[in-house]
Amino acid sequence: ERYAGTLGYRVLVGEAHDNIEQFAKSLQHLRQYGVDGVICLSHDYNIPNQTFQQYFEPAKDIVMVGGPVRNGFSHVIPDMTNAAEQIYNCIKARGCRRVAMITRKTEEAYYSVSMRSAELKNKFGDALIALELQSESTSDRGEGSSWIVKEKVLPQNFDAVICRTDIMALGVESALLAA
Prior knowledge:
The protein is α/β, with parallel strands linked by helices.
């Protein structure tokens, strides 16, 4: 965002929170402001290309980051293998041996989550223990974080915790500091 600003671009953000209709409205809103292009960081809705294309015409001004590949759109696929390697090296350099990764079953259907999880599991092997959140209704920052720290992380004496999102990381950090 800072770099784009130094080049004279204004950055606008639209959020859809897993709602394809809201995603389409956000894109329409951005185009009303005359944006030069759209970088779509999270488009991995668990829907087929045909359904996705009912909402979006392929456009040269949209770049999809990550997958799944959407027909007719430009794509940039991040190197999850390299990312997992960097995470692994950082955690190992700190002497951590028992590492927890917080997951939600329903999120494994999302391309980005499943790719990230698979690469981390591949890199860490048996040293990575998946901890599943209590239920889908728990929040990442509130009771979900508190529950997983109290019931899973602390009793099992993990050296490090990998969180799915920045919101989850803030919640886990708060719960650990409060413990």
